[in-house]
Amino acid sequence: MLIDQINAEREVRQMTAMTAGGAKKAVYAMQQAEVLAWSGLGAAGATTTQLIAAFNLLPLTARKQKFYFAMMSAEKRGETSIALAIARFSAGAASSNYEVARVEAIARAGIDAVKAATTASAKRAAAAGVDWSWKPA
User: Fold this and answer.
1) Phi-psi category of residue 130: left, alpha or beta, with phi > 0 → left and psi -120 to 50 → alpha
2) What pLDDT tens digit does each residue of the chain (137 aa) get?
3) Contact 63, 55 (CB under 8 A)
4) Alpha carbon distances (Å) from 91 to 54, 71, 137
5) Helix and strand element counts for the chain (H, E)
6) What is the pTM of this model?
7) What is the full DSSP assignment across 58-70?
């Protein structure tokens, strides 16, 4: 029951960080895939200029297949390159991923503490001691 309580709190906190709504989550996942595809256009440490050059070498059908969201976002905003859209997607994902990972670490440590405790009172104390405000150094 104590582990279930920790899991329930983790779920609420992670869902808040990830955003509510099935469609919105699917869109964010597709945008994250575009960020990864963008990074895959060049070697590690490639400059934006190099990535744009690699993108421009792709056939239009391949560009659309891999970068629909970024291309449409850039076009709608009047941007001449999808690099800014990719940067927006990346920044949003980084913020969300950080919070989800932080909450996951807290929950896992709390569950491990409950499991390691050998008495009922120690298990309750471990569950009560979960510090949801913890931040990594």
Assistant:
1) beta
2) 999 999 999 999 998 887 766 788 788 889 999 999 999 999 888 999 999 999 999 999 999 999 999 999 999 999 989 999 999 999 988 888 899 999 999 999 999 999 999 999 999 999 999 999 999 98
3) yes
4) 22, 17, 20
5) 6, 0
6) 0.70
7) S-HHHHHHHHHHH
